[in-house]
Amino acid sequence: MTDDDEPEVDLDPPSGDGDDWYGDADPRVPDAPSWPDRDLGFLGDDVYASHEPLVSGGDITRPPVDNPAAVRELERRIDEGRTPAFPIDLRRRIPIEGVWRRWRQLAMWGRSDVVDDFGRDPRATARWEWLFELLYKRWFRVEAIGIENVPSRGRALLVANHAGTLPYDSAMVMHAIRRDHPARRDVRPLVEDTVFHLPFLGPLMNRIGGVRADPENAERLLMKDELVAVFPEGEKGMGKLWRDRYRLQRFGRGGFVKLALRTGAPIIPVAVVGAEEAAPMLGKVTWFAKNIGIPWIPVTPTFPWLGPAGLLPLPSKWYVEFGKPIELPHSHGPAAAEDRLLVNRLADQIRTQIQQMIEGLLGRRRSPVLPAFLG
After folding, report:
1. What local confidence, expressed as pLDDT, does residue 130 receive?
2. Domain with 128 in it
3. pLDDT, average across residues 63-70
């Protein structure tokens, strides 16, 4: 046979045990238990033709070691209990390969080749840096106080109040430390499911460093000596009406206290003032919102009257204060995480401290009438 000759397709089974020689795992079919018809004409002429059987005695022929992508795909399919021989071993090349190559290049535009375990994309973070800088310096005029209380290395748990219809506060806390802290550390905020599953906003928060709010995710990050930001008010904080502004809601069941005790991470209280005026919620619609998978639809001075543009924040003056670290593990130890009464008491103490920090920041404002413009 010369190189120009078309190879003959040999898809006969290695052993003739009947029509169902392959049992419940036909290597020619993607992700299907069985397929009575053996006609693979839909694959065209570009079928992998080898004199060695694809399946022999239950062993699956591994792809060449010089193709690490094929090896990873094969291992993934085996771990998921799927048929591993398709399409790696049956396809020799993709039709109109040039078009698919261009499509892959377009899909990967602006994305990193490598992301971390939680989906953070360094290239996406750098691409959106200009927007965060504009909001931080020009639009919100953020003033960071006590940022030296954030450690330059090692794990720490930032506990902050939550407000606003969209998570602008978590973005500003992230940018404040990355911009003004001497170590330029990255903060990994825990994002509620309400935001994490929103179209566009959820993937964006994930790519710039946000992590789905889950105790296991937070513990893994802290064990890697990361800075993790939590907002114990959760959805209740984001759903506060204007009349309840800067009144902290209940801090859940003290999960952040358990997390700090188990991982040995110090707690740094954080007070954010300005988010309430950036997106004042006058009311919210709940009955219709639940039908589309969100807890409420906010009613603000600009939304829904201006459409999607109404979700843009107002130019309020922001203050972000970082309190002194609270070393709970040194005074109580990991075993204290199982004491429910102690955990609730410590959570209430930290909530009270953050409330006092907020009231102190409100007293710094020059104008109680127009804080959104004069600060």
Report:
1. 94
2. 122-374
3. 63
